[in-house]
């Protein structure tokens, strides 16, 4: 076992009412807050700190729509239950097996931290299996009134310790937490 194994970090934005996308998966409400040279919300620093990206199939398909693959040099694992093949980007591997065993092996073989990007069902699975150590959540000043929830009925209590909090002029707020303990219900 490594002395300082990599940490799995959820780094994500959500609406004030806790949604990461509209019902149809659309994230058009985030475009106003895209990273730019004046305000990249610490993304560059975060991106440099991670070596691996984890995402669900729907998040992967959405990322393909951004044009050029944005995570080209990072090893990316896409969790899917689908048997048919998906478009395959460079450094992307599809995972269909046991999440807990996969993450255990991944952490044994990686040195840099791991980005849990989403979506909602993958976040739920990771939290259920006690696989997340850090949460970096950007709260966007908008109430969507419905959509895909950030935390979708994970079925247990997760206690957090707050860390850095940062407010941006455009109203966005960055909240950082460390997972303290997870209590089965």
Automatic annotation (TrEMBL):
All copies of domain Bacterial bifunctional deaminase-reductase C-terminal, residue ranges: 72-173
Superkingdom of source: Archaea
Keywords in alphabetical order: Oxidoreductase
InterPro entries for this protein: DHFR-like_dom_sf, DHFR_dom, RibDG_C, Riboflavin_Biosynth_HTPR
Enzyme class, first EC level, given as a word: oxidoreductase
Oxidoreductase listed as a keyword: yes
Identification of the protein by name: Dihydrofolate reductase
EC identifiers of the protein: 1.5.1.3
An annotated Gene Ontology molecular function: dihydrofolate reductase activity
Gene3D superfamilies in the record: Dihydrofolate Reductase, subunit A
GO biological process terms on file: riboflavin biosynthetic process; tetrahydrofolate biosynthetic process
């Amino acid at each position: 076992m490594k002395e300082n194994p990599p940490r799995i970090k959820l780094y994500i934005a959500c609406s004030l009412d806790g949604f990461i996308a509209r019902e149809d998966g659309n994230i058009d409400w985030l475009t106003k807050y895209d990273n730019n040279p004046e305000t990249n919300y610490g993304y560059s620093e975060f991106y440099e700190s991670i070596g691996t990206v984890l995402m669900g199939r729907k998040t992967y398909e959405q990322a393909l729509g951004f044009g050029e693959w944005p995570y080209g040099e990072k090893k990316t694992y896409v969790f899917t239950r689908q048997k048919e093949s998906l478009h395959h980007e460079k450094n992307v591997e599809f995972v269909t097996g046991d999440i807990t065993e996969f993450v255990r092996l991944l952490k044994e073989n990686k040195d840099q931290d791991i980005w849990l990007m989403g979506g909602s069902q993958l976040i739920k699975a990771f939290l259920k299996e006690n696989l997340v150590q850090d949460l970096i959540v950007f709260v966007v000043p908008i109430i969507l009134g419905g959509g895909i929830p950030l935390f979708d009925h994970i079925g247990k209590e997760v206690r957090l310790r707050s860390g850095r909090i940062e407010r941006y002029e455009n109203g966005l707020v960055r909240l950082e937490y460390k997972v303290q303990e997870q209590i089965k219900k």
